[in-house]
Queue: 4 jobs
Job 1
Amino acid sequence: MFNLLAQEAASNVDAGKAIALALGIGLGSLGAGIGIGNIFGSMIQAVARQPELRGELTGIQWLGFALTEAVVFYGLIGGLLAYVLV
Amino acid sequence: MLRRLLTLALGLLLLLPSVALAAEESEEFNPEHDFEVGEWIPIHLGPLDLSINKAVAYLILGTIVTIALGLALMRIKVGSKNDPARRQAVGEMVYEIAQTQVAEQGLPTKAIGRWFPYVATLMLFIWVLNMISFIPLPLSNEKFELFGLELPTLALYAATSSISVTLALAFMTFVFTHIEGVRHNGPIKYVKSWIPDVPKAMYPLIVPLEVLGQFMRLVSLSIRLYANMLAGHMLILTFIGLIFVLGNLFIAPLVIGAATLFYLFEVVIVVSIQAFIFAALSAIYIGSAIEPEH
């Protein structure tokens, strides 16, 4: 009986870990998806209005892209920490 | 283009034996195992562990390649002076990106002479480290036998997917930032410049946050590069590993296609962007410490 309970608890913990990892990545990607869409959308608008600024804007665009994209990985690292440590 | 794709497919095929061996050994497929560094030449100085492991081997290789690349692109002259070769043009392009996009965006004019070499080196070094991590190299912990010889399997591994490496790089920027800030502004004025213009009553709330923010830069700078490379490698590995997890060979064309797609995405975009970001943010941090009201 106790054995069964222990098994069930262990599998519950595993399921919890999987949910933590998935939530970490999923919610992180949600935010980053919106953010990256925003950045490229604004870039398209900006270049459409003032095409001569494209060169200057490209650097800023990629900076913003990488800063936003990193958010996914904070979620991933949080999820992995939960997965490995708990 | 076709030839390039064929080379890529060949590279991914070469990766397969290492995955297969790993799966046979442990029955269970575990992508984390590929990120263990192991210990090749143990060097222990008291509590310090200075062993040569996989990450250190990749760092040494990356250093050599960076120096060779720099010499080949910038120093070795080919042909006459009026005939700039293609190699030199590539070198000048790299130099121009480092100057206009990285150094001049972040550093004030008076500091460019001193800090341009640092940020340009960071950019080139991280780019090379990221790039050689996508070339299958015989530097891995697993061995296979070929005609009675024990050879290491070809494997993909990024030195930058070990957090110690990226933390060390970020720590250099952190130290240089504060040294430059103190040197140019004096310690008291520099620490005061962290705190924005707010009413005095807000100080108990703002000051700890701003001090914490200085350390969060260190964390975010290192985690960004580390997690990007780790996630990239893990995605490729997991997709190929699906064949062995599901034990189904018919899924191979699908997952190898997906793995190739991610491989291309990493090589074409992520590698360069991450190197650029690390250097650009280092320049911005150092620049903002030298001229706080910038």
Note: Chain B is about 70% helix and 5% strand.
Job 2
Amino acid sequence: MKRSQNIFLGFIYFCAGLTLLFLFLIIFFMTVRGIRVISWEFITSVPKKAMTEGGIAPAIVGTFYLTLGSIIIALPLGLSCAIYLCEYSHRNFVVNIIEASIKNLAGVPSIIFGLFGLAIFVKFFNFGVSILSGCLTLSIMILPGIISASQEALNSVPQSLREASFALGATQWQTIKKIVLPSALKGILTGVILNIGRAAGETAPILFTAATFYKRGYPDSIFSEVMALPYHIYALVTEGTHPQKQIAIAYGCSLVLLFLVLLISSFAIYFRQKQMSSEKCLMQ
Amino acid sequence: MRICLKLKISYIPLPLLLFTEMIKIKEKIYKWLFAISAFTSLIFLAGIAFVLFLEGLTIFKTVGFSDFIFGKNWYPTHEPPEFGILPLILGSLLVTFGALVVCVVLGIGSALYLYELAGQTQKAILKPVIELLASIPSIVFGFFGLVVVAPFLQKLLNIPVGLCAFTASLILGIMAVPTVCSITEDALNYVPKSFKEASFALGANRFQTLTKVVIPAAGSGILTAIMLGISRIIGETMAVLMVSGGAAVIPVSFFQPVRPMTSAIAAEMGEAVFGSQHFHALFAIGLVLFLIALFLNIFAEIMIHKYRSKLRLNR
């Protein structure tokens, strides 16, 4: 009996260790092989000689535009949806349907968003393959995440604060604007930051809606195609004529993307951890 | 309330009355604005379903439903083209099955580690680390699989191609570990402490307590984790596109290149002419994928409610 317990516990150690090992390996390989090509010039210059030399600046800029645009669209929508669900609505059939649809939207495969964006934004509204189409598609994808993060933040605001505000004669909107939102701001921000990381790394939704392999210079309007870091990695390893040189650049590109995404996420996770411990202090 | 207001109105000056009326109207406007935006997710979900049906169902006019789902040949660019997605479905199933084994073993194992063996400090470090693993973009996983894992496995196992269902399963399995791990850990933590204490009091050791008491009590929660894991794996696109090899043939072994549904859409949509049969066929694949994901998510949702009400945690 003792032996079976030891085997079982050993197996658990093995599983946890293997997971960590894999995470370590990814970061290790990307760093060691990527650091060779990374220089100031690599980050700030445009690609040269059919993608075999030069930098990745347009891709970084493109990812920045796409991420920023999708957050600008998704944040107001997601936040007001969360406000309605937490502050105004009561549990009824319609609210249940809305919550179910949020959960299901979160589970839709990312490539499906790409198909939807292609059919609606690129073709039906005729925005073409552009930053605008890409931002709209990405914003639908991150909407459920923003809603649930905002909901969590709003729910963590103590009910007594709202009651105190109502008792002073404030209306519902005044209470939300002056009391609830400021108290929930940190939580909402954390959720938003986590979703920024997700939007920056996602490739499938922008595959047919925004991304292009090669573009001379930087995008000049929201209707122009754009290079994006994740798509650039994909294109470097699957297209083009000089696999060896391109793979080296792809390593550099992956390292930049990995660094950006991990930086954003660890910032958000740290922020949340700190907040949770301060909330615990308040409770005690 | 009404009577009070009416009594007051008689001596409230007119400007103040207008002011309060304006506040009331403003309140109503805000409420309606929020209510409308609350429906956006529902609208988008319905819109996605509508677009997929609209664009996808067209293919069934030329290719029969059963020929599409059970057809053995996927030659969309041949003349005449053949649109049978059975190889793609089987490719998806094979990769999903393999990845499921990996993510269930590693995910539940890691969750049990966090639940049973890790101390407070270890938990404080490990949980964020697992979340970081979840935030690594799928393209980086795919690139890693393509340039590091596939050549390594090819040498290690002495197989003809490194980019095969096995490699894809391994990569996708690792990608789904955070999902499975965090939901399983939640489910384990929902099990009341008294269950465990009662088991120890009866003389059971840790192994017996875990396998006979805690895991069965968290059973439907763990099942939810697995469901959502499957949903994540089957919808994963970029990583699977880069490491699965891309051959649209009916797979007979794990060490053979496959082309799952998601990678077929991603790889071929760029070449498909807008409005052509191929274009509609890819939307129809999207429809199949969408329905599978919808089914898995609804099922998972039902399971969550079940285990919460079983443990009386419905809030």
Note: Chain B touches chain A through 89 residues (CB under 8 Å).
Job 3
Amino acid sequence: MIEATGIKEIIKPENLVYKKTKILTDNTMSYCPGCGHGTAHRILAEVIDEEGLQSETIGVSPVGCSVLLYNFIDVDIQQAAHGRAPAVATAIKRLLPEKFVFTYQGDGDLAAIGTAETIHACNRGENILIIFINNGIYGMTGGQMAPTSLPGMKTSTSPFGRDVKTMGNPLKMTDIVATLPGTYYVTRQSVHTPANVRKTKKAIRKAVQYQKLDKGTCFIEIVANCPSGWRMAPVQSNKWMEENMFPYYPLGDLKTPEE
Amino acid sequence: MAKIRGSIVVNVDKCKGCEVCMVSCPTGTIAMAKEVNGMGYYYAYPANPELCIGCANCAMVCPDGVITVYKTKI
Amino acid sequence: MEKELRLMKGNEAVAEAAIRAGADGYFGYPITPQSEILEYLMVANPAETTGMVVLQAESEIAAINMVYGGAACGKKVLTTSSSPGISLKQEGISYIAGAELPCLIVNVVRGGPGLGTIQPSQSDYFQSVKGGGHGDYHLIVLAPASVQEMADFVDLGFELAFKYRNPVLMLSDGAIGQMMEKVYLSPQKERSKVIPDWATTGKPSTRERNIITSLDLDPNGQEIFNQKLQAKYNEIREKEVRFEEFQCEDAEYLLVAYGTSARVCQKAVQLARKQGIKVGLLRPITLFPFPAKRINTLAGQVKGILSVEMSAGQMVEDVLLSVNGKVQVKHFGRMGGIVTTPDEVVENLKSKIIGG
């Protein structure tokens, strides 16, 4: 392993502040440079590690860029048909109620083909964690428009910009599920700055605790970048995200448990 | 008063050169190398190691978990 | 242990048999003519007795994906539906076959295509036996011809599903699902505590993580996997053929029929024999694997075969393949949800096979 190191005298085990968790495998993640998926995977793996959940976790990966999540997070995983992860997770949790069950889905998976499964799992209050990576585009298939693409956004299937008259407005799934009594904790976060990464990790940790209470669905939307789909460099895409995505998808808690 | 000094280790082969760590570093420790790694990316490295305060911002934002952070009081 | 005798509808028998087989979960959606299965299970409330999960899903698609999730945890799970709902499930079924998961799917067939009719039919044979979903896979297909068999095939279905890590389809129809007959029910089996080593149940330190997927982006790997599946299906063809014969020993003509058509043909055989026609009936019980060898042997004995199905003629193609040109094969069937009568069968046997 080739390493670029700082001051060598400081590099001692007792000085360790941060190291990649072993729950994140050594496989190079298949995501593009700077993609929010990588960061989201990393912190999910960190929480599973810190909470001692590796032997208690069953995850469900989607169809989309993160279909190969099972190569990167070292827990038992089922890969689900496009959009159906909440249904798959419903059965897992109902049959193995002691386990920590999560789905990890993109915007096409959760808000297009999987709209019914998303809404009904939340409506039944399935005791699972749904992680929703929203980058307003279909990355895996080459940059097509998503239900969450912004008005005027140029994609390969909205080459002149999303025309709300013929293509509809962006769908705010998180707002919709927050209105359902079956959801217990609904929040919207991001992972593009250290402060936001820490907040998202805290949200995931909360969701882990809440799942033990059997009080309903936890739903965490992570507004993320897609440098390739948006045709931008990573740092530039994070800036674009702050300026364009956040006004439409504001960060913060939409629903928290009554104190 | 003791000064906090940090030191990062970058797994050069796994870095994808996204630069998000560089932008998140508060002290200007990190820069992108002028040569590429095995994957063809200009990898990140601690260009000014004496500036590092071990805040771990870089490791926090790294999508690929290639950075390990150490810190001590001097 | 004693079996319990009851008078039940076919649909109810499936539901009761599922509970007694120690099923872990049922995920279904209402559709005529099988909604009684879900209703019976809700009333029986096995959550209180065996802990079995019963869930009305939001769609047939959601239900089959719940089955996928449960099966991937190594659990005994099933779903039931009727023709249009089974069409919806096809992607999920392909995934289940591609991930080599065990489960039971019941199709209580109604007339099609499209929304069709609610009366019985046998027009889902192609869908069940030849594909339905995408890719090179097969379901083990069991065809009950009585309420008793609808009950018995639940346990048999699960047994075969877990033996081969393959989905099993019970291909019934609206007549058998709705009719009431005597049925002997097996005693309650305990829900299994055995966890298959491939199941996702939480990765302990003693093994690698289990991944349930049907994806392999490496074509070489995917070809090897497909060869493995084909080898499995060949083993199933060798070992799991089931059929029943009725008066075939001295038969000069043969009827081939399954399910409700077989019941009709049994009467037709009796009627024909009274008229001096020596006809027998071969009733396939497994449609996959098809009793091709036996039909081929009988083809050497008889002067003609009439394949009787409530459809435009689907199983007849497998009969033709099995016979391989040895003797003439014709099809007779009513469609649109109309049930064939024994007299019609005898008529058609005479006009299509004996006369011609």
Note: The helical segments of chain B are 20-24, 57-61.
Job 4
Amino acid sequence: MDFILQPWPWYVGGPLIAISLLLYFYFGKNFGASTNFETLCTIAGAGKVSDYFKKDWKERDFALLFVIGLIIGGFIAAIYLIPNQAIDLNPKTVQELTSLGFSNGGNQYFPNEIFGVAAFSSIKGFLILLVSGVLIGFGTRYAGGCTSGHAITGLSSLQLPSLLAVIGFFIGGIIATWYLIPLLF
Amino acid sequence: MKNSRFLILGIFFAIVLSKTQAISWYRFYEMFTFQSFHMFGVIGSAVVISMVFMRLFKSGKIKDINGNKIVPKPKKKGVTSTLLGGTLFGLGWGISGACAAPIFIILGFELIPALILLVGALLGAFIYGLCSKKLPN
């Protein structure tokens, strides 16, 4: 039980992610997460505005159940499996973040500066999350996948487009963390 | 219901990502600043082990639950779309510390502001759908 409550090292998490992929394919479907953004648009009625969303979402009911599972799993993990959210960050990272104005570096999973309730009352905080979301939704659909679909499924099946996409992920991620975060905070 | 196995798998996947801290904003910040090996270890080992599974799929040693050969869908080709789309996604990921699946997991952590992120992501997918035919591949 003690092991379950401790943070899992990379060599436990990585293989278990691969096993999730294996099971997803074994159950007969293609592993990925970001197509669900489109499916949710279809359910919300986007088909009335654009033919792109005129699809039968019921064909993707399995993926929606997966998404509901993600929410339930997060809930279970947060309540029962993570008694302490402290992260063993590189002291240099903590120092850097403190100088940027992040108050609680590494003591919890998510910084209050981004995921605090202030996001609902401050225009800047709201826009940071909303615009990030738009970039995630637009970018994953344009690229044809996210970390699951491209980085894990695509790279492991040796697909060239996925390599390009992952290079893109890192270009964007590096610009964001090196230049945009210091600008925004 | 036969699809309930995907519900269980979603719960499992969320617990794995949560326990290995692969949903934490701080972990992704560390990854993009190359200050820690952790996330590279997580993603790298997942990819390497998945490669072994892909070989077993290809050789037919592992078949799906219905006995069919497992063939991962080919990704759409296009240098501009994958690189540019990937970069835009990377920007959103780098700022918010969330990629697609973790958005839902973070909601499970009862962090209500993650709803803004989800609404944004749906809006982004919607905008893509509207202009997909006009974008260069």
Note: Chain B touches chain A through 115 residues (CB under 8 Å).
